[in-house]
């Protein structure tokens, strides 16, 4: 699986571009800088077909509408976070962003355990609430795109409206109990592996027995 990483928007959220077939790709989270994103895929001769959102906070959705209009890509988000796509208040843009909010006008909702196929790859949706009600991870082969649920040696904040620390711990336990190891591509900072997080992440300490 070929994965490209861009750091977009004012909070430098990770945007992942995954090649799913020759000259075809999907993206996970486009937090801003839509022009940079579009120039990048043009440079790589890639056609974007889908945008997978791990949750609806402004720093992960800021560039989505402009990219959707430019490419026709379909946007996917969990049903519980879909209201954030049209609200600068619920998405936290009004309280945390310096830039104008660009609401998304079209999207498709996803739910836990649904599958999305693009090109030669299939992505499984795992609902992992905690950071937000509709936070999800997208799992494809040996890779987890974990959004702001799981970070390297950390986990997402649970002090925002709609966050829930108890739900976060349940979601982290779900990830901890997955069979085997995975490469983890989080919403911010560096990549890691699930096994490393099982062994080193203090938020997962209670699951180690």
How would you describe what is shown here?
This protein is α/β, with parallel strands linked by helices. It contains six helices and 14 strands. Strands 1-2-3-4-5-6 form a six-stranded mixed sheet, with helices on one face. It starts with a strand and ends in a 9-residue tail after the last helix.
List the helices and strands and how they pair.
Blueprint lengths: L1 E7 L4 E9 L2 E5 L5 H10 L3 E6 L5 H4 L2 H8 L2 E5 L14 H4 L11 E3 L4 E4 L2 E7 L8 E5 L2 E5 L2 E2 L2 E2 L9 H12 L6 E4 L5 E2 H7 L9
Parallel strand pairs: 3-4, 4-5, 5-6, 10-13
Antiparallel strand pairs: 1-2, 2-3, 7-8, 8-9, 9-10, 11-12, 13-14
Helix pairs in contact: 1-3
Residue-averaged pLDDT: 97
- Give the CA-based shape: globular
- Strand tally: 14
Instruction: List the quaternary state of the chains.
Output: single chain
Q: Give me the side-by-side strand order of the main sheet.
A: 1-2-3-4-5-6
Brief write-up:
The protein is α/β, with parallel strands linked by helices and 209 residues long. It contains six helices and 14 strands.
Key features?
six-stranded mixed beta sheet, 22% helix, 209 residues, alpha/beta
């Amino acid at each position: 699986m070929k994965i490209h990483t861009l750091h977009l928007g004012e909070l430098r959220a990770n945007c992942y571009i995954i090649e799913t077939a020759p000259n075809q790709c999907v993206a996970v989270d486009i937090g801003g800088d839509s022009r940079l994103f579009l120039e990048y895929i043009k440079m790589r001769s890639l056609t974007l077909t889908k945008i997978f959102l791990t949750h609806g906070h402004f720093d992960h959705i800021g560039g989505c509408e402009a990219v959707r209009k430019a490419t026709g890509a379909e946007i996917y988000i969990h049903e519980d976070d879909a209201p954030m796509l049209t609200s600068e208040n619920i998405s936290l843009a009004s309280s945390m962003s310096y830039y104008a909010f660009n609401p998304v006008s079209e999207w498709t909702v996803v739910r836990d355990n649904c599958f999305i196929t693009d090109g030669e790859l299939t992505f499984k949706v795992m609902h992992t609430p905690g950071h937000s009600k509709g936070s999800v991870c997208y799992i494809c082969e040996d890779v987890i795109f974990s959004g702001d649920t799981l970070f390297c040696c950390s986990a997402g904040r649970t002090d925002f409206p709609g966050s829930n620390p108890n739900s976060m711990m349940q979601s982290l336990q779900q990830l901890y109990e997955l069979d085997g190891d995975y490469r983890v591509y989080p919403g911010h900072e560096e990549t890691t592996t699930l096994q490393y997080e099982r062994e080193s992440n203090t938020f997962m300490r209670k699951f180690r027995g």
